[in-house]
Amino acid sequence: MPKRPKSPVPTPSPAAEPKPVEPVKTCAILPDTTLGDDVALVAENMEAILASPSYSLAQHDRLLMDRPETRGVRMLLELHKPELAFQEHRIHSTVIVFGGTQIVERGAAKRRLTEARRAAQGNPDSPKLKRDVERAEKLLSRSYYYDAAREFARLVSIDNQCDDARDFVVVTGGGPGIMEAANRGAFDVGCQSIGLNIKLPAEQQPNPFITPDLCFQFKYFALRKFHFILRAAAVVLFPGGFGTLDEMFETLTLRQTHRMQPVPIILFGREYWSKIIDFRQMADEGVISDDHLDLFSWAETPEEAWKQIVDFHNAKPKA
Questions:
Q1: Residue 269 domain boundaries
Q2: CA distance 303 to 173
């Protein structure tokens, strides 16, 4: 029987180089005598613990409160903070006064016009400076709306803040112009008024006539609008720009869709508003119904506006 050939003996491969074993990283183990031997290290760590944002109460942690993930918490705070104040002051209802920031009292409007004319005289070929003069002249002619808003707020306030429970408290956006005039009217007769201010790119400051405990700063327009509407017994809109128009159509839409309580919506100054918006044309075009034209009314004097509110609520001014 033939012999089976021998299998070749495998040549052993060279031994692989052993990988160096990395030392396991561990926390430094301090001896039991640390507190005695390294008091400074422990004290430094304790100081870091107390200074860490994680150790502060959640409501005091600004980094936490400013995170996008906590937006809901911030919105809840903006919802509750004014509400608690209104309850504490026993404010049952409000009268909203909206209007433009650029409509100021006559003296300020005159100074603005003087400055515009002086600038235009220094550069008579500038179309922009000529335009500034035209605008300043127009705003001066509208300054009587400032006086009207101030007188209206005086009438509203003096009749309804004699008791502990307050009705028809004037509320504005807390800024300059018509808003200032309305807060000032309440201030003139020693009555409370509210300012719902909001941080804007122009760094708008609240006007100085708001009741200090009733002046609030908002981050969110939506919650600011909510507080405007929640207790509203009336809405009075003086001439204004984009912001006033936004507030006007927001209110009209809420009434049109029955999403807010029935209130008189009064457009103050028919000559101005009829130029800015052709409501009748909207109805003629079919985009609103004729009935929607009854959602608002007109007023030309503070007394007329106040009487409409009183008649709407079947109330009489107190003597």
A1: 73-104+144-312
A2: 22
